[in-house]
Write a structure and sequence with these properties.
Layout (H helix, E strand, L loop, with lengths): L1 E7 L2 E2 L8 E8 L2 E9 L7 H8 L4 E4 L2 E2 H9 L3 E4 L5 H9 L9 E2 L13
Parallel strand pairs: 1-5, 5-7, 6-8
Antiparallel strand pairs: 1-2, 1-3, 3-4
């Protein structure tokens, strides 16, 4: 399974589309087998969900995300986990243990990134 986390470095970023990078974790049998940082190629409506799905991502973990991105991930059969915070690897490990659940933090005004920081 491939899990992506929207990050600023290795910390989960509050808004998916405006993150600095994506930490991509390959997992097998509930264990992380590899990780890599992929720079955010740019926020354009509809682009990032398809970019990550085309990379083979099965799950995306983020602080928050616009409804359009959630819809595209759902169409591409990518599980969306929202409301996460803190260290990306720790969140993935919690997800693999079944301990990370989505809070559904959808940013309705996603073009206003500065307003999306309060998903705590």
């Amino acid at each position: 399974m491939k899990i992506a986390v929207s990050c600023n470095g290795n910390q989960i970023w509050a808004h998916f589309g405006h993150c600095e990078n994506f930490m991509i974790y390959e997992t097998e049998n509930g264990v992380i087998t590899s990780e890599e940082s992929v720079p955010n190629p740019g926020h354009r409506p509809g682009f990032l969900p398809n970019f990550l799905a085309d990379m083979g991502v099965n799950t995306i973990i983020s602080g928050g995300m616009g409804g359009g991105a959630v819809d595209i991930f759902n169409e591409r059969n990518v599980e969306v986990i929202l409301g996460a915070q803190g260290d990306a690897k720790a969140a993935v490990e919690a997800y693999l243990r079944g301990e990370l659940e989505s809070t559904g933090s959808i940013c309705h005004e996603h073009e206003h990134a500065d307003e999306c920081g309060g998903h705590e």
